[in-house]
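Predict the assembly for these two chains.
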Amino acid sequence: MRGALRICQKDVRQRLRDRTALGIGLVAPLVLSALIGLALGGIRSGLQVRLALVDLDQTPLSRGLADSLRQGWPERSVVLEPVASESEAAAEVASGRLGALLLVPAGFARSVAAGAPLALQVRSSAAQPLAGRLARALARRFAARLGAQGPPPALEARTPGGRLRPIDTYAPSLAVMFLFFSVLGGMRAFQAEADGGTLVRLAAAPLSMGEILAGKIGALILLGALQFGVLGVATRLLFGVRWGPLFPTAALAATTVLAAVGVLAFVVSAVGNAAGGWVLGSAVVFVFSLLGGQFLPPEGLPDFFDTLARWTPNGQALRGFIDLAAAGDGATLALIREPLAVTGVVGAAGIAACALRLRRPRAPRG
Amino acid sequence: MLIARGLRKRFGERLAVDDLGFEVRRGEVYGLLGPNGAGKTTTILMLCGVLPRDGGHVTIDGLDLDVGAAARARIGFAPQWLGLYLDMTGRENLEFWGRMVGLEGAGLRRAVEDSLAAVGLAERARELAATYSGGMLRRLNLASAILHRPPLLVLDEPTVGVDPQSRNAIFELVERMRGEGTAILYTTHYLEEAERLCDRIGIIDAGRLCAEGTRGALVAGLGVGRRVEVGFEGEGAAAAAVPAVSSLPGVEGASAAGRTLQLATRDGPALLPSLLQALVGAGLAPTRVEVVEPDLQEVFLRLTGKALRD
């Protein structure tokens, strides 16, 4: 695989020289994260989120959930208000006094013991999308723990990440979106090689096509991972962004990069030319970003958009990163099983399709 | 060095290459000539192992092209399109292509310096390829193909769009490599290049090899004789001369093209006395008489019915 390494090395060096690519990949998301963070509540101060907690189960398990949430929030950045009934809580949310409601349904503990836990319910206010997102993340974290440990779960009182601020959601959001754009730039350069004939020439060298494609795709993955890593560290150091625990965050970052490479490798290679691939690829990134909640959080939109976001790899990635940030140190891979699976599978499938398409490079016309 | 037998390639319904076979020997430049769409590039891509064949067999230096990468390591390929990275310097391009054929370390550095010197680009090696002229890019393209001193060099239209200085540099390099024993497969649209460089020529049309041999053998094989051209000052004189000379002994055909009378003949010089006598007798005064030697263009035209640049 020495040939693959050499090709990868050359491609990485070429991309790192490209100032436009660096601007799109690093500078733009950092600047936008800071601007949006400042505009929506600051990057230093926390945001206060008020949630209604409706416990219709009234069992030790449900009270344990409430207690663990209550104990976990520092500096009163999240306020949990016990509300007796669902209708009362819904009215509070509708009025805007509370941001979202988290409901533990009656029979919840029994269903957990039976091995088929009922879903925790979340309702959010369109006016406070962040509160809804936080409530959903908490519900998912709790559900993941139930699934991971088997019923009945041992609840831990720990910090669940109450300092989630706008920048904590917009930093990963922009990182994911600009990752897709950067990968698109790399894929365009790759397709331009196919169009220009250097790929054919590589195929004439004493290398296997597998080595060549591994080098090319490997460079895209490496650059994507590098970009995400730099953005993660930079936003953490500059703005104190919460990214969740290192291992699951790194795992999700890896599959997100894979997804970006897979989607765009598939799109650009299917178009078959660099210029057309760039246009269609940009459109795909734009639409995915829109559906995935990168521009507008789906919680602020009708429920249909939340479903759509789950169908996009970038939406899944964003959801995973926010869950990790919201869940704090206690987050494990189990919490982000779905985002990991979706982004990983999409990435692998896209790369396989691209490899199939480019395994026989065509000589340029003329 | 290169032996190709029974090459066949089909794209859908179209048979692009049909039972094509030829050999290129050590120290020989073999010219592959054919009009656009004749199958030259398809043939070259099959010979370089890029395009899978539907039939046929290729060996390079005794190695089967289909077994491993050893045969491909013996090829230096300079495609007609520029297989270069314009955002890298000339030296970086050569270093990259050198690594692709397995060169590393001191061997790579030496090969890069030698190749840069061979094509006269040592002075500009640190500049981005994007700043090179078309001729310099062609030379760099060629330099990247000879880095590992391949025993077989495949040059696909290596002088397209280059200035005379670069063309001469490329000719000299090709001749030098031939002298060192390299087998060279050379395609071109320029017949004067083929006549100057190629020891043997294969003419390909519609995917088939129509004829093959040295320039002299091709001309003799087709029985193409010399041509006599007679120029006149006035309009219509050439046309008026056609009946007067058509029946002369040794004239195989006569036609007028503008102010020029063209005569096909086996022996031009022997025809001249009777030709001039017949023209004077018809009251026609020629301003120019020229015996034209047969060339590859005529051979090509007769074999394919097309000019080389069609």
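Chain A touches chain B at residues 3, 6-7, 10, 14, 17-18, 196-198, 200-208, 360-361, 363-364, 366 (CB under 8 Å). Strands of chain A lie at 49-55, 78-82, 100-104, 121-124.
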